[in-house]
Amino acid sequence: MSHYFTNDYVKSEEKNINVIVNNIKLKFIVDNGVFSKKGLDFGTRTLLENIDLNKIKGDILDFGSGYGPIGIYLKKVTNANVDMIDINERALKLVAKNAALNNVKVNIFKSNIYENVNKKYDAIVTNPPIRVGKKILYEILFGAKDHLKDDGTLWLVINKNSGAKSLAKDLEKIYDVTIIKKNKGFYIICAKKR
């Protein structure tokens, strides 16, 4: 079975969607084979509506960008430098189209986890790919620490049915963890590098 984090694509059927987050109007092209093709998913929306924009500045990494809602929104509302990575080539093409559509300049590149990431960030923001399994998920979230500047933060959304409570507890081993919001089973977590 094909997943949105693989490159064995189903047939392309691009469509346009309009999204409003915190009164910011955004337009996106979405497609088959990329996460949340029907529109902005509830978890990502909850993350964007609750992220502390006062703490999101400098250099930001949107990990697992999909078609680009996180990084494009953050670029639109901050003066940050935004890098966006994904393993899915179709997603990366959509991010480029969507950045142009929303008049933002972001740096887009392909990376399998952090293999092509060669700098440190003030914040890494993600709606992580839960379906990759716990081993790779933990590699992504715990590996973020090596790509954060001192006092950098990892922002993520995870559903309680996907292990939000145990994940938050595990993250406390290397981060200062704050649960920012719980909304309909989704946890918004800010993990600060110690």
In short:
Helices cover 25% and strands 33% of the residues.
Question: Please, what is the oligomeric state?
Answer: single chain
For the record, give the distance between the C-alpha atoms at the N and C termini, rounded to a whole number: 39 Å
Please give the domain count: 1
CATH class placement:
Alpha Beta
**Secondary structural class:** alpha/beta
Given as residue ranges, the uncertain stretches (5+ residues, pLDDT < 50) are none
Helix share bin: 25-40%
Number of helices: 5
Structure report:
With 194 residues, this protein is an alpha/beta fold. The chain has one domain (15-193): Vaccinia Virus protein VP39 (Rossmann fold, 3-Layer(aba) Sandwich). 25% of the residues lie in helices and 33% in strands. It is built from five helices and nine strands. It has helices spanning 42-50, 69-77, 89-101, 134-143, 164-171; strands spanning 15-21, 24-30, 59-63, 81-86, 107-110, 121-126, 148-159, 175-183, 186-193. A seven-stranded mixed β-sheet has the order 5-4-3-6-7-9-8, with helices on both faces. β1 (15-21) and β2 (24-30) form a beta hairpin. The protein is globular, with a radius of gyration of 15 Å. The N and C termini lie far apart (39 Å). The relative contact order is 0.16. The mean pLDDT is 92.
